Amino acid sequence: MKLVIIGAGSAYTPEIFSEILLRPQLGIKEVALLDISEGRKRTEINAGLRRRMLAQESVQSTLVLPTESCEENLMTQAVKQYERLTVEAAVTRSRKTALQALINHPLVLSFEKAKQAVAAMEDSFSDYIKLEN
Predict the structure, then answer these.
(1) The whole model's pTM is what?
(2) With CB atoms 3.0 to 4.6 Å apart as the test, which of 29, 30, 115, 117 could cross-link to 2 if both were Cys?
(3) Structural domain spans, the chain
């Protein structure tokens, strides 16, 4: 099986990798680390550390770091934009920004679905989330 970590320059990548090492039964033979150009340097650092982890643990997995950034990958861009807008919506408590975040997510296929998701989130977590217009 091949695993692709999108946003591999993230601080969470080492944790993901540690979990992979603890679960050889997953049968992951190849791990590809992808990020946009902004995260490229951190991805390269993560790749070096992960290669040493693989060698130390004698894990039979290959680590792939594409030579080009995945800037052209529209799904990666959409997910990154979704993440940025989600953080902005949380900080500013903006319903409009939360809606924009969901509209950018590649799995949310309509404005109406995004509105329903924001409303459901507000209803389910009303003790914690107070969005403003």
Answers:
(1) 0.49
(2) 30
(3) 2-64, 74-124
